Fold this protein.
Amino acid sequence: MTAPAALAVEGLRRSFGALTAVNGVTFAVAARERRAIIGPNGAGKTTLFNLITGHLRPTGGRILFEGEPLGALPPYAVARRGISRSFQRTNVFPRLPVIENLRLAAAATGRGSYDLVGSVTRLWVPAERARATAEAVGLTDRLDVAAGALSYGEQRQLEIGIALATRPKLLLLDEPTAGMSPEETQRMTELLAGLPQDITLLIIEHDMDVVFTLADRITVLHYGEVLTEGTADEVKADPRVYEVYLGSE
Amino acid sequence: MPFLPDFLGQALNGLAYGALLFLLSVGLTLIFGMLDIVNLAHGSFYMLGAYAGLATLAVTGNFWLAALAAPIAVGLIGALVERGLLRPLYRRSPLDQVLLTFGLIYLFEDLVKWGWGGRIRSISPPEVFSGRVSFGRVTLPSYRLFVIAFCLVVALVLWLVIEKTRLGAVIRAGVYDAEMAAGLGIDTGRVFTFVFAFGAALGGLSGVIAGPIQSAYPSMGVSILIPALIVVVVGGLGSLKGSFVGSLIIGQAETFGKVWLPGVSMLMIYVVMALIVVLRPQGLFGRPLR
Amino acid sequence: MTRPGGLRAWGFAIILVAVLAFPAAFGRYPVKLLQEILIWGIYAMSLDLLMGYAGMVSFGHSAFFGVGGYAAALALTGPGGALGGPLGALLLPAAAGALAALVVGFFSIRVSGVYFIMLTLAFSQMFYAYAFQTAWLGAEDGITGVPRPALLGVPTGEGWAFHVYVVAITALAALFLWRVVRSPFGHVLAGIHENEERMTAVGYPVRRYKLLGFVLAGTLAGLAGSLYAQFSGSITPDAFFWTTSGEALLMVIIGGTGTLGGAVLGAAAFILLQSLVSTYTERWMLILGVTFVLFVLFAPGGIVGALRGRIGLRA
């Protein structure tokens, strides 16, 4: 008898009018696994994320988190179950300082957010976690800077930090290195490799070096369907993967 | 059977009121559709139209000249407001523009009080339409029939312009996607000014046309704004068709509310609005909300 | 070294004492103006909680001001003066404001931006229409002859008692809001203002927070309306009219959004403009409109924002 998968997606479908963006996708991610989702543009990767986090409702199929169906939970409830995500386009709190960006995320699942007259500084658990997260994403020196004043690379780091500060069991990262310079990508890859091992990671990424460095297993999506799945070596050896990438260029 | 003629008379009254609301709200909805601004000063344009008409009448004594001069004058004021006051705010949140138009209400209302005083002034209808007409046992002022016909003609012309002409295509492109319109090589800045001025002119026109029915007084703009906004909410923001259908519904609701439920007549239009908002938040013909 | 928090507490205490002692040095009319400023200040601060902190620009705040005013007027003119104490003067109006805000907010917070403006505006007009045509609310004449309550056994009829009462309630309201905007809840509201989508994604049920913020603001607006009815001895449907919402908006913008002190400053500017300017010229509305337009165009941070920029003052 084995433990249920951290995440199991079963026959998941989603249509937008005549277009089917996700068409019967099935896969499972084990706890503590690091899984990459790759595929050409329009393969349905971000739609898949939006379905998992409740931003979109599936047209068919279901999603199980730790063996429990997520059903029709709204995004905030999915987050409270322990699924957190980062966004492809940086989505931070631009006018708030870095530490407050992280503290808000850290306090989201805790108690006390309805406290009307208490003091924020008294709630030291989220404050501590915010500081720890800042260290994990390399922003310790920038705590009091407004998020909007950070460099692009730093904003991407904060983007991951906000998702991480909620203490997720499953972390979904949507193109964490999008738009980054090679140096920034290098730093981000190291940062991601250093994330706590007990977090299950699902990562959409175009940069194959990043994918091969980080992922235990890779799922390849193509036109909303799973083309193949396997270890880095298995995927590299699959001629269909090359066809898809070359054919779509 | 005394009920039937009464019913017909009320329906015609409601139609005249609805026609006026259409003339007013269509400018509001055009401006919103193109510039994403809820122009709270639209009622002020209506009021300014009535007073511009009054001024022209005082000089010329000719209602038709007044009906021509009012929209031109108010359209010019609209162009000035867009160029001078709203344009600097386009980079900021759209709410700042709404707030600015709120400030204009005070400004315009007091300017008119300054010039004409605060009392109610009547505007007489043109000679041709100063009588009453009868259909069997129903009689009503012939001017109301003129208002209905006039607004129908305006609606038809607007529909033709927006659906069939190049200018209309530009406006439609701007309504759906200003960036795309800019990409097509359209000078959106000039289109914005034009649409705002045109919407303001329609507001001014509705003010002078309403004059013989509603008279002119400085706070008339503040009172008419709410029914006009409700028409736009009911019909759907930015929709010409919605403005038309919404006006007819609100016109009838208001008029029959006064006859059948005099105790709560003022609530009628809000009940209609609340029903629509609960059942269909984007309004009858509005684009779905994000 | 003094902490800035300590400095601010001293500043607040000094202003409080000055405001309390005001009638000792000034005559009836200035005292009346001051009381009016304080009452409108509560109302403007409650709107600022929505606008400046939660980012919800409401054009229907008059609904709760009016509901509070009518609740107080009904309770205080009730038979035998059974509700002539704090229950009728403070608790019932605040609760009525809260309840009205709960209902209006439930429907309105489902939309945002201009749609939110239009819905809140229409809802407040609904209250206006109802009050205007309802006999037991005095229809268009409203309710007159509202007596001032007796608190802790002291009648607050005229003079010092009423002044102390108004100042105390204003100070409590200001302190409460000051705590709220610095509380964990206040920080959540600020986060929603900044980026609603992200707040949802990290696990905040955003609508619940917005509704709670809306109800809080409605409660305090109800309290302000109640004080206004006691201050002026009457309440009319005009309290509900949408321009009453707009006036609070003017105050907040002129004073500076997102600064509670600014809301009170804005109320002061508005009331002084209305009463002082109108003694010199009839054109106070024109001056008000121009002032407001200039603030929106050139000083979106209001008086407080302009001061901060000029002398580097921090709030």
In short: The interface with chain A takes residues 176, 179-180, 182-188, 190-191, 194-195, 197-206, 209, 212, 216 of chain C (CB under 8 Å).
